[in-house]
């Protein structure tokens, strides 16, 4: 499977090492055996940090948050998501809980009804009916070429990302079932989906586990995905073009008004993150060259996007619309931070991209905290009953939390 990632210290330089208390990353180290602890992103929530930081003075362009600021916001978001997803009613909410909180979302007795939904979603992978084209997914919608965050494959990918060994048995309705069997079932249906970020992650885990029969499908899908992103980027206005800011501004404003509908930017960033992780697994120079172009695009657009959000907020006096802008920014910037972290892992042995990526990640972490402070000022997080949080709010805060967690490598 190419060059094996040997030890954790080689993946992430010592000055960028993740905190030792990150049990999810320790679980990944055991699961992947080759030391791919930095490959995927979740971890258990940290212990609560006393207090919440006040809104800081305007930072310089390259300044990131302080470590206490970062840890306080991570702890605050983890507590909020724990409370507001304690009794998930849909597979989507259960998956978001798993994405945010890790394996504790599945471990009784703390898991509660969420574990039931997660296990039922995984059971669907064993159902012959799931193989039929157009069969309903677990969230009740029609199966789409690109699967949703509520899909059983998403549940499995998140569970593997959280450090679950493939030998572990889950108490499904069909009886105790090893995670490995579920992965085999999910991979056997790959041809039913087009380019799919969750499928890429499942393939990456299979290859990391030594299942080399899936290496060629992973390489093929990685090449196809990078080509697709490259083609889409060529169709957009050049970043130095005067129309680029206007086009991006219109796109972000439109997205913020339709948080409950599928949007291209989050899906593209999720795909980019999965592609960077696949490049790290495959370790093939041809793929790395194409992936570097995508990294360059992300680094350039980060600066432009930052200013566009600030302009939109300055021009939006209405409180509800500002909340929507903050949520859109939190999801997009959180996903962007995760994508850059994937790139950091993929190009960990090259100093220049690592330095540029680290500086960009610091700026994004600062922006995430500023948008969180914007939500605090509207009291949007304080006035909701535990079961009243919308999927859009839960998704935005989940990805903000994940983005802040991985940003610690650059802090």
Molecular structure report:
The chain has 411 residues and is mostly helical. It has a domain at 8-84 and 253-410. 59% of the residues lie in helices and 2% in strands. The chain has 15 helices and two strands. The chain has helices at 8-11, 23-32, 67-84, 91-101, 113-123, 152-161, 179-187, 197-208, 215-234, 242-256, 264-282, 285-314, 319-346, 351-378, 391-406; strands at 169-172, 175-178. It has a two-stranded antiparallel sheet with strand order 1-2. Strand 1 (169-172) and strand 2 form a beta hairpin. Helix 8 packs antiparallel against helix 9, helix 9 (215-234) packs across helix 12 and helix 10 (242-256) crosses helix 12. The longest helix is centred in the C-terminal third of the chain and has 30 residues, at 285-314. The model is unreliable at 1-62 and 130-146 (pLDDT under 50).
Kindly list the characteristics that best describe this protein.
two-stranded antiparallel sheet
State the order of secondary-structure elements, H for helix, E for strand. HHHHHHEEHHHHHHHHH
**Any idea what the radius of gyration is?**
20 Å
**Count of DSSP strands:** 2
Shape: globular
Mean pLDDT: 77
The largest sheet has its strands arranged as 1-2
End-to-end Cα distance: 32 Å
Indicate the low-confidence ranges by residue numbers: 1-62, 130-146
Strand content: under 5%
- Tally of contiguous helical segments: 15
Main β-sheet: number of strands, strand sense, barrel status? Answer: 2 strands, antiparallel
Give the structural class: mainly alpha
Q: What fraction, in percent, of the residue positions are helical?
A: 55-70%
């Amino acid at each position: 499977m190419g060059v094996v990632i040997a030890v954790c210290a080689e993946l992430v330089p010592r000055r960028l090492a993740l905190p030792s208390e990150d049990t999810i990353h320790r679980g990944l180290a055991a699961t992947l055996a080759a030391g791919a602890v930095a490959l995927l992103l979740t971890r258990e929530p940290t212990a609560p940090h006393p207090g919440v930081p006040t809104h800081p003075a305007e930072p310089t362009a390259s300044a990131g948050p302080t470590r206490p600021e970062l840890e306080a916001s991570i702890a605050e978001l983890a507590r909020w998501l724990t409370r507001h997803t304690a009794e998930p009613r849909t597979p989507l909410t259960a998956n978001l809980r798993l994405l945010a909180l890790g394996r504790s979302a599945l471990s009784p007795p703390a898991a509660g009804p969420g574990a039931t939904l997660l296990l039922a979603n995984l059971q669907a992978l064993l159902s012959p009916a799931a193989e039929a084209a157009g069969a309903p997914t677990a969230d009740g919608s029609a199966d789409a070429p690109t699967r949703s965050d509520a899909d059983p494959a998403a549940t499995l990918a998140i569970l593997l990302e959280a450090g679950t060994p493939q030998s572990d048995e889950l108490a499904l309705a069909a009886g105790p079932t090893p995670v490995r069997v579920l992965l085999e079932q999910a991979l056997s249906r790959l041809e039913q989906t087009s380019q799919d970020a969750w499928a890429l992650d499942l393939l990456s885990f299979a290859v990391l586990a030594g299942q080399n029969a899936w290496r060629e499908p992973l390489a093929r899908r990685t090449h196809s995905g990078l080509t697709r992103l490259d083609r889409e980027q060529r169709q957009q206005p050049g970043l130095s073009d005067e129309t680029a800011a206007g086009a991006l501004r219109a796109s972000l404003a439109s997205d913020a008004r339709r948080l409950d509908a599928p949007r291209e930017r989050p899906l593209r960033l999720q795909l980019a993150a999965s592609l960077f992780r696949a490049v790290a697994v495959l370790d093939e120079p041809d793929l790395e060259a194409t992936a570097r172009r995508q990294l360059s695009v992300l680094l350039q657009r980060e600066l432009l996007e930052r200013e566009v959000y600030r302009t939109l907020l300055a021009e939006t006096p209405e409180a509800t619309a500002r909340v929507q802008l903050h949520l859109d920014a939190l999801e997009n910037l959180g996903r962007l931070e995760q994508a850059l972290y994937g790139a950091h892992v993929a190009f960990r042995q090259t100093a220049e991209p690592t330095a540029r990526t680290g500086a960009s990640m610091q700026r994004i972490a600062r922006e995430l905290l500023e948008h969180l402070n914007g939500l605090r000022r509207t009291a949007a997080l304080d006035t909701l009953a535990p079961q009243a949080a919308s999927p859009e709010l839960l998704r935005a805060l989940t990805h903000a939390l994940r983005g802040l967690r991985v940003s610690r490598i650059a802090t």
